[in-house]
């Protein structure tokens, strides 16, 4: 017993060392970005700047004292009915501590990353043989697929480890605190469900329900994978054992009923709030299956080894194996369910198809770690460690290539969106600070989206067009804004847009910024727009206040 406890403590220390090292490593690319700033404004965001600005806009509203949030990337009328407890908590802490929001943003990412990986380690300890646990955790922390072979054609027409952050643990840890807390809650919920049915204790079922309740609010569509994986596991075990375990199903029902209110609320919000419904209905189609398989290829190969050997050894009926297999298959296959039902004429309101793969990496890594251990278990200890380390290293090139790409983008002042820059000039940041200090959130701003995306999170105002998914009719509003700034357009067009946009301010740009727009920019200082007055100007940005409009176009 003493030897076993000592071995377990050593394994725990190794797990802690790995977890802390990986999480701290994710800070290095941001420090590199800060080092390159050279006096420019750096937002500590290296990927998907626009989506992170949405999260920061919610934090901004919580910092103002709101519990319910509005979509500030549009000026359309809307109820203030949605909330996100995770970002509300960050904003509330910022409100009372006065700590910088971006500091809290990354502290939450890293601290919850440590909690998530430790929870995953505890889960692996219950599911896997002793020798498979650390390889599985290593794979969860660092592995990806074959995307690095297709990097020249990087984009959504390549394996998912080139572009889909939420599909991989390392990328989620590095880039997105929402994915971290979402997958943490998924892991905690399934961990407690597992403990409930294995230990027969109801308190774990109740706790799993609480995690599901939080998950339904914070990252709602992840509930679908948790529920699907667990229900498939219960059905498979019931069929294989040819018996109905009433206690297990009652525990599952208990957890489900506790977690149900937030899911129901999100669905009600979807039904009554057109702006919220527009966001939810933005299609994110599932990629071709081979993109997913290539993105997970090394893990799938090792998982197939585990399946083959366990089947050959007649251990395939063991519940940990069945659970991991069910979870992995549901995690990968769920995104194709709307398409399958659509083929027979049934519409499922799940346009967020590809997002449902989040979490599938975890059971795949467990099975892969199991398979890797089964391959090397009969080798001498040193050789087994060497082979294991080599195999794990061969799963990392896509993540390494991702970091190189981000570094290259920072050097070139580019963002992966193709529309935003990694750094903002001091004059642009000065204009946003002026809005924050001299205007109210309800006073909306008309400006170009690549600048406007920063206004809701850092100034607090609504904008007419700011985000491709949050702003209804974004493509049309992008064109309208560009026409507004174009010196060749008539003032009648401008007045018409101001009236429809319901804005109080206009943030325009001096001719020095023309290279970023591709059209000749109107100089609103030398060519004043009647009905507006200049309230702020510097070398790059001019802010106009709408004082009056021709009666025909007044909102």
What multimeric state do the chains show? single chain
Decide which structural class fits the backbone. mainly alpha
Number of strands: 6
Query: Which residue ranges are poorly predicted, with pLDDT under 50 across at least 5 consecutive positions?
Result: none
The whole-number mean of residue pLDDT values reads 94
Record the strand order, biggest sheet. Answer: 3-4-6-5
| Total DSSP helices | 24
SSE order, one letter for each helix or strand: HHEHHHHHHHHHHHHHHHHHEHEHHHHEEE
Overall number of domains: 2
Please report which band the strand proportion falls in: under 5%, 5-15%, 15-25%, 25-35%, 35-45% or over 45%: under 5%
Give the end-to-end Cα distance, rounded to a whole number of Å: 78 Å
Write up what this structure looks like:
The chain is mainly α. It has two domains: 2-35 and 100-393, no CATH class; 423-553, Rossmann fold, CATH 3.40.50. The chain is 60% helix and 4% strand. It has helices spanning 2-25, 28-35, 49-63, 85-97, 101-127, 130-142, 169-175, 177-199, 202-218, 222-241, 246-272, 274-281, 289-295, 297-312, 319-333, 337-343, 361-376, 381-393, 397-411, 426-438, 449-452, 455-458, 474-485, 491-501; strands at residues 41-42, 423-424, 445-446, 505-509, 532-537, 541-546. The strands form two sheets. The chain has a four-stranded mixed beta sheet with strand order 3-4-6-5, covered by helices on one side. A hairpin with a 3-residue loop joins β5 and β6 (541-546). α3 (49-63) packs across α4 (85-97) and α5 packs parallel to α8 (177-199).
């Amino acid at each position: 017993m003493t030897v076993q406890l000592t071995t377990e403590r050593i394994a725990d220390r190794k797990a802690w060392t790995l977890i802390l090292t990986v999480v701290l490593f994710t800070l290095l690319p941001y420090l590199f970005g800060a080092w390159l700033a050279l006096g420019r404004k750096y937002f500590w965001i290296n990927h998907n700047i626009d989506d992170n600005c949405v999260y920061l806009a919610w934090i901004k509203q919580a910092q103002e004292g709101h519990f319910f949030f509005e979509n500030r990337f549009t000026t359309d009328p809307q109820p203030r009915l949605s909330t996100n407890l995770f970002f509300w908590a960050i904003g509330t802490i910022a409100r009372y501590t006065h700590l910088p929001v971006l500091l809290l943003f990354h502290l939450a990412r890293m601290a919850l990353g440590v909690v998530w990986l430790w929870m995953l380690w505890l889960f692996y300890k219950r599911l896997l043989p002793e020798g498979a646990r650390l390889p599985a955790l290593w794979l969860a922390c660092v592995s990806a697929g074959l995307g690095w072979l297709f990097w020249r054609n990087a984009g959504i027409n390549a394996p998912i480890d080139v572009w889909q952050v939420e599909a991989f643990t390392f990328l989620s840890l590095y880039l997105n605190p929402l994915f971290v807390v979402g997958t943490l809650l998924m892991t905690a919920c399934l961990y407690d469900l597992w403990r409930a049915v294995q230990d027969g204790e109801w308190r774990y079922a109740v706790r799993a329900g609480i995690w599901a309740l939080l998950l339904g609010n914070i990252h709602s569509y992840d509930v679908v994978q948790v529920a699907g994986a667990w229900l498939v596991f219960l059905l498979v075990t019931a069929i294989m054992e040819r018996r109905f375990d009433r206690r297990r199903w009652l525990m599952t029902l208990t957890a489900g009923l506790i977690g149900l209110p937030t899911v129901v609320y999100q669905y009600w919000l979807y039904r009554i709030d057109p702006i919220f419904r527009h966001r939810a209905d933005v299609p994110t189609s599932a990629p071709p299956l081979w993109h997913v398989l290539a993105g997970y290829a090394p893990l799938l190969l090792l998982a197939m080894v585990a399946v083959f050997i366990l089947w050959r050894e007649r251990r395939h009926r063991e519940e940990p194996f069945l659970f991991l297999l069910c979870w992995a298959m549901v995690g990968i296959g769920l995104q194709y369910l709307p398409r399958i039902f659509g083929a027979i004429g049934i519409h499922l309101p799940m346009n967020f198809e590809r997002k449902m793969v989040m979490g599938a990496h975890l059971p795949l890594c467990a099975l892969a770690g199991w398979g890797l251990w089964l391959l090397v278990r009969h080798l001498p200890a040193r050789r087994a460690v060497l082979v294991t380390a080599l195999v794990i290293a061969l799963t990392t090139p896509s993540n390494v290539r991702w970091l190189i790409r981000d570094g290259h983008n920072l050097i070139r002042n580019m963002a992966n969106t193709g529309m935003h820059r990694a750094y903002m000039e001091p004059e642009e940041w000065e204009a946003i600070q002026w809005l924050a200090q001299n205007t109210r959130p309800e006073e909306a701003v008309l400006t170009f989206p690549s600048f406007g995306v920063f206004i809701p999170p850092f100034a607090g105002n609504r904008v007419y067009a700011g985000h491709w998914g949050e702003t209804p009719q974004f493509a049309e509003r992008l064109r309208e804004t560009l026409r507004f700034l174009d010196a060749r357009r008539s003032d009648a067009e401008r007045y018409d847009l101001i009236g429809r946009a319901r804005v109080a301010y206009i943030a325009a740009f001096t001719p020095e910024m023309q290279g970023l727009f591709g059209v000749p920019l109107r100089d609103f200082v030398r060519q004043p727009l009647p009905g507006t007055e200049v309230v702020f100007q510097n070398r790059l940005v001019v802010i106009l206040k709408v004082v009056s409009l021709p009666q025909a176009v007044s909102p």
